[in-house]
Design brief:
Elements: H1 2-5, H2 9-21, H3 33-41, E1 46-49, H4 57-64, E2 70-74, H5 80-92, E3 100-105, H6 119-128, E4 131-136, H7 142-149, E5 155-157, H8 176-193, H9 208-211, E6 214-217, E7 232-235, E8 252-254, E9 269-271
Parallel strand pairs: 1-2, 2-3, 3-4, 4-5
Antiparallel strand pairs: 6-7, 8-9
Length: about 270
């Protein structure tokens, strides 16, 4: 089966040319050192280490020997110590940590949701201080979208032109319209994550005055009469004194007569 599905050199060149025409970065996964050389000679500068090869030190060293490549390492079936060992090996061989991305992964096809353990991606990022992503073998697109929301910098997802085709992976792969929907959702997630600074966005600043409230007088107040919370209420709009300033009004009195429902401002007040 594998021999039948194998892509030869001519096929790789054809796919590389077509990908370039479509402005897509072409990748192919090498499972042996000969294939690594083939891909490098074809100009590939991003190497994906599949889950099953994470303990293959010969392959890891071969890829890490190239000083001008980026590495994406999948970690299905792995314990954290195995991930650390593989990472340390390729860094010791010369790979730069900033050029490495580690993918959390489950290699069961399709992966049951109960076995996804997406929080492990966060554990990898925290413990290893490295860029992380997720290799998704679940049915559907929800988990990939969730991984993006949790900070994944790479998402791997199998897709096919037809799930009814022969072969082991088609049934658990996305069809083109589903892949398009997943990418659209992930791009929206990327856009919505923002800077992390809690502050009003430009789109919502215009709503602040209309949505918030100011302090209003609840009854007629004579000049010299003290101002306190019994004579005040919070009402929209929010272009006057904020209710959060209520305690700042202690020991203040009306500088002039104030009508009921008057929006209070500091010029109406003087200290007692």
């Amino acid at each position: 089966m594998l021999k039948k599905l194998e892509l030869d050199l001519k096929s790789h060149k054809e796919l590389i040319n077509y990908s370039s025409f479509k402005n897509i970065n072409f990748l192919s996964t090498a499972f042996d050192t000969k294939s690594v050389d083939l891909l490098y000679d074809l100009g590939i500068r991003v190497f994906k280490i599949p889950s099953g090869e994470i303990t293959n030190s010969i392959l890891l060293k071969k890829i890490a020997n190239f000083k001008d490549v980026k590495i994406i390492m999948s970690t299905g079936m792995s314990y954290m110590e195995e991930v650390k060992e593989a990472l340390n090996l390729i860094i010791a061989q010369g790979a730069k940590k900033e050029d490495i991305t580690i993918l959390h992964c489950n290699t069961d096809y399709p992966t049951p949701y109960k076995d996804v353990n997406l929080n492990a991606m966060l554990t990898i990022a925290k413990e290893l201080k490295i860029k992380t992503g997720y290799s998704d073998h679940t049915l559907g697109i929800e988990v990939s979208i969730a991984a993006a929301a949790l900070g994944a910098t790479v998402i791997e997802k199998h897709f096919t032109i037809d799930r009814d085709m022969d072969g082991p992976d088609h049934k658990s792969s996305l069809e083109p319209n589903e892949l398009n929907e997943m990418v659209r959702a992930i791009r929206n997630i990327e856009s919505s994550l923002g800077s992390g600074i809690k502050e009003p966005s430009e789109s919502e600043k215009k709503h602040i005055v209309s949505a918030r409230k100011s302090l209003y007088i609840t009854k007629k107040i004579k000049k010299g009469e003290p101002i306190n919370e019994l004579t005040l209420a919070a009402k929209r709009p929010g272009d006057g004194i904020s209710p959060m300033k209520l305690m700042d009004l202690v020991n203040h009195k009306a500088k002039k007569d104030l009508d009921k429902n008057h929006k209070l401002n500091w010029n109406d007040l003087e200290k007692c």
